[in-house]
Design brief:
alpha/beta; Rossmann fold; ProC C-terminal domain-like fold; 2 domains; 8-stranded mixed β-sheet; about 50% helix; binds NADP nicotinamide-adenine-dinucleotide phosphate
Length: about 270
């Protein structure tokens, strides 16, 4: 089977998320000679990486052949100013993949009218450790081969879910986009509860942190559902069951999480509206 990786790719915006994706593409075997980076002020590390791997940095668009994939990873507010320069990289064969938060496929085609195939994706922060969760929605002009290519590129930074309806992206933002912060806060809450239960604060924090790290790793490695993993560590009448009775009460964690996710989804809608 031929590799679904593109022969030529332009990354616009080599910042935190662009840099994480770039690392992923190199790891899965993309030819660096086929990668061009566009960034007005690349970091010293990025300049060094481009030189070391033989990637092109800020090339003239006319010096490149047809670009197979163009990835937009600048801040969303730069779309308007960047659009004229971006157009120069787009040909009828180009697949555009945008990770700009809040920018819809409609926004993108209004600013980049020569783009015919577009995918909107929402990765999250753990992409920087190759354990991201990305949801993506494809516009009408995307072929099956282009979608497979986008899937390979996005899978290089973690798991990928495809959405049939782009409007679900606000809910994705509220679950996986903002989700890492909820988990960090869970560590803070568990540590504070440990301190309230009598542990020295630093020990409580280290234990809480290691617990979430370990539970996350088990989720990563295990094929079992979270509910089964939970049941497996809960003996009837035991200590875990006593705590879960509180957490799983009608006014426990579930309704609180629903409220939090609904607030994030509402805000995502306001910010993209
Ligand atoms: N970080 C996340 O967790 C996350 C999650 C989901 C989606 N996203 C999306 O990913 C995008 C990038 O976020 P980030 O956190 O990676 O931001 P970032 O670190 O600021 O990266 C953006 C990069 O683009 C560069 N840039 C600015 N204007 C440009 C232009 N006209 N042409 C080319 N490059 C340009 C910036 O340079 P300067 O620094 O010099 O301005 C910077 O290097 C955003 O649209 C965000 O919504 C991020």
């Amino acid at each position: 089977m031929s590799s679904p990786l593109p022969q030529s790719l332009v990354l616009l915006g080599a910042g935190k998320m662009g840099g994480a994706m770039l690392e992923g593409w190199l790891r899965i075997g993309m030819n660096p000679a086929g990668i061009s980076l566009i960034d007005p002020k690349p970091s010293d590390e990025m300049v060094a990486l481009a030189g070391e791997k033989g990637m092109r940095l800020n090339p003239d668009p006319h010096s490149l052949g047809p670009v197979e994939v163009l990835v937009l990873a600048t801040k969303p507010q730069t779309l308007d100013t960047a659009a004229p320069a971006v157009q120069a990289f787009i040909s009828p064969q180009t697949l555009l993949i945008s990770i700009l938060a809040g920018k819809t496929l409609g926004d993108l085609s209004a600013r980049l009218p020569n783009a015919t195939a577009m995918i909107r994706a929402m990765p999250n922060l753990p992409a920087s450790v190759q354990r991201g969760a990305t949801a993506a929605a494809a516009g009408k002009g995307v072929s099956a081969a282009q979608r497979a290519m986008a899937d390979a590129l996005l899978s290089s930074i973690g798991k990928v879910e495809w959405l049939e309806d782009e409007r679900l992206i606000d809910a994705v933002t509220a679950v996986s986009g903002s989700g890492p912060a909820y988990v960090f806060h869970l560590v803070e809450c568990l540590a504070a509860a440990g301190a309230a239960a009598g542990l020295p604060a630093d020990i409580a924090e280290r234990l809480a942190r290691a617990t979430i790290e370990g539970a996350g790793e088990m989720l990563f490695q295990s094929p079992l559902s979270p509910a089964t993993l939970r049941q497996n560590v809960t003996s009837p009448g035991g200590t875990t069951a006593a705590a879960l009775e509180v957490l799983m009460a009608d006014d426990g964690l579930k309704p609180l999480m629903q409220k939090a996710v609904a607030a994030a989804k509402r805000r995502a809608g306001e910010l993209s509206g």
